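Batch manifest, entry 17 of 40.
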Amino acid sequence: MIVVTAPTGKIGSLVLDHLLATDTEIRVIARHPEKLAPAVRDRVEVITGSHGDPDVIGKALVGADALFWLLLADPQAPDVESAFVDFTRPATEAISDQGVGHVVGISALGRGTAQADRAGLATASLAMDDLLAGSGAGYRALVMPGFMDNLLWQTELIRNQGFFSEPQPGDLRLPRVATKDIAAVAAELLLDRSWTGIGEVPVLGPEDLSQLEMAEIMSEVLGRRIDYRQMPYEDYKAMMLAQGRSGAIAQAMVDMAVAKANGLDLGVTRTAENSTPTSFRQWCAEVLAPDLG
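Output type: structure tokens
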């Protein structure tokens, strides 16, 4: 039995697709089960609620062999510790109580870098990993750079004004990964179970790209000029606050952006094993262009 959290999100839904292609038993935890496709609901057992709720996670892990753990931080949390560590604590207790053998989590790059202790959401993700690593289960933290798919939050801006904007310097080359590749790696680990112990699995995408290089690729794929405009950190924080995030979460997002600009995502040497196949050009053609219509 594999338990999947956040099954209606971008990564969780793709993990679920991989698992549904096998004959494994699947249980999902969903706040809004109605968002699951009918065909999915027919194949899986559904536990309704939040996976941060002790009763919900305790019920979901009864008889489970493996858990896919994905935490979407509460945007209105009073601080990052409550958003990540406090939310995860009931799961670690349930994992231990139920003897779950394998846990695969989604986390952040940066462990061991000079920025790791002041990287906002990324620092909190690493603390979450430490908590899960102490649960008694084998644990693999999939540690991520920025997601290509995060650009979908800016489709209206790209479509109507011809640019996208982030806080990072335009010429800074960073790894980028497609969510479909993250899901493939997660599903492979969940189905394998031959691994033991605690470890990180970097998932880096196939190449490092700067924002300016991404703008050039987007322009070529979309057939019209797309520019990149660096957003000042104070404007970035103001935007996060305007979207309803608490002051603590908005500041944590700024702190993570600053840390990334200072090398947070560059502490892992790229290898064939940690490079995933979907290029940014391919992602633009397969995902961004159709989304823009």
